[in-house]
Amino acid sequence: MSVGTLMDWRTGLDAGDLSAEFLAMEALDRMDQREGDLNAILFRDRELTLDAARKADRRLRAGERTPMLGIPVVLKDNLHWKGAPLSNGSRIMQGYTAPYNATVVNRLLEAGAVPMGKANMDEFAMGSSGEYSAFGPTRNPWDLSRVAGGSSSGSIVSVAAGYAPFALGTDTGGSVRLPGSFCNITALRPTYGALSRYGVSAMASSLDQVGPVAASARDLALGLSVLTGRDPLDSTSLDLPGTKGLADLRPATLRGLRIGLPREYFGEGIEPGVRGVLEAAFQRLAAEGAELVPVSLPHTRYAIDTYYLIVTSEVSSNLSRYDGVRFGLRREAGELQEMISGTRDAGLGAEVKRRILLGAFCLSKGYYDAFYLKALKARTLITRDFVEAFKQVDILATPVSPGTAFPLGANLADPMAMYLADVFTVTMPLAALPVVAAPAGFSEGLPVGLQFVGPSLSDVKLLEITEAWQGISDFHRKRS
Ligand code: GLN
Question: Is residue 155 flagged as an active site residue?
């Protein structure tokens, strides 16, 4: 299938060869054709979309030339978009309409982006496959019998299938990078705080970040250029340095770049096809003059335990607000307690319940020190590993996941197997670091991704490095 990139569309719109309305109509047609198979979208409204497109066309005709004007975008369904239903992929939100815009949504809309719809997702962003949505799984456009990856399944598939060249997901422990890697899409998990979380449904607050996704680093930069900037409505938000001129991304020089390859990320358990793709990618980078340096992140072995203890603890606290009292689903019952437990029982899926229960257990008196506090200590050790590594190298490169997209249903009976898909993506959020996941090649016809990890606030540099990689490879250009 041939669908333009954001950059192509930008050029066409600015030259007057394309109209935003035409692009939106084409994208809506693609949705009509493919949604029956893919199930990436939970809400869309043709008139709303076309209305926004016509407004963008008026701004274009008036001479405005800005990065996202007239560009279709898709929003994960945990982002508040005023007037649209917000489901979090859950039945418990039934009947809830967003009363305001998330800051990131506001910034995109004000920049003239054209909203195409809300994207399917694992319930409350908990999951690695996209199968934990209450509204059915999203399928992988490269192979409909396989998962898209989660939790930002619909956002990623929307870009892969040409519904929009840019989408927003969220990444708490890998949720844009894993589906990105499974569907051949480029995804950024920014430095913690780089994008505002005002109006983003909270999963695990010490880890949650908004994650932009697109077909290339260059396209990501265009979108990111209208999203950054401190937001007084989010006390954790900060100003990302280097974003001036971001829309005009330049490739980094690979010659002399010291790329650390952490030993712990290339051990047993990686599928041979994935390993082969990564080795070829690193050799290609070395051929351009990058220096490959073996490094060690010794506490990586604690990553999954640490991440899942912290996540479940924060989840059990954050999700207590969904109680049927103020909004969403309500199961009427005689006593208040019965109403609350009846609503939560009916409204929440098994994975969310599992995490709430585990988290409540971790935080309870007597277990707090043994589990939660210990996990926080391990988090510090994991963070220090990175600090040490960045004394020797400029960036790190790793796989995104040990395998390619797995068949639908393969991990549903085994939560541990599902958690292990995240083994290479959870450490960077624990250390609050930025990461780009980008296409690296194919194994048996399925996409394989790699990650570039940098020190705090090196987001723009990582995009420049990815741009350099995408200048010497063309995997990211292949479409499903
Ligand atoms: N798969 C991870 C989890 O289930 C990551 C989720 C996310 O980043 N939102 O927790």
Answer: no
- Options 76, 153, 313, 480, the catalytic residue: 76
User: In 3D, which of 66, 41, 43, 44 has the Cα closest to residue 56?
Assistant: 66
CATH code at 59? Answer: 3.90.1300.10
Residue 347: predicted pLDDT: 98
* Ligand 1 pocket list (CB less than 6 A): 125-128, 151, 170-175, 203, 311, 422
138 is a domain residue: yes
Closest atom, ligand 1, to C-alpha of 170 = 9
193: containing domain: 6-254
Q: Report the candidate in 83, 112, 79, 96 with the shortest Cα–Cα distance to residue 196.
A: 79
Longest Cα–Cα distance in the chain: 71
Beta-carbon neighbour count of residue 264 at 10 Å? 18
pLDDT tens digits, residue range 432-467?
999 999 999 999 999 999 999 999 999 999 999 999
Whole-number pLDDT of residue 416: 87
* d(C-alpha 188, C-alpha 331), whole Å: 39
Main-chain phi, psi angles of 291, to 5 degrees: -105, 125
The residues, any chain, with a CB within 8 Å of residue 80's CB and separated by 6 or more, are 86, 98, 99, 100, 101, 102, 105, 199, 200, 201
Model confidence pTM above 0.85: yes
Q: Over the range 175-197, which residues count as b (16 or more CB within 10 Å of their CB) and which as e?
A: bbbbbbbbbbbbbbbbbbbbbbb
Q: Is 175 a catalytic residue?
A: yes
Tell me how far apart the alpha carbons of residues 219 and 212 are, in angstroms, rounded to a whole number.
Answer: 10
Residue numbers of the chain with a pLDDT score lower than 50 = 1
Domain count within the chain: 1
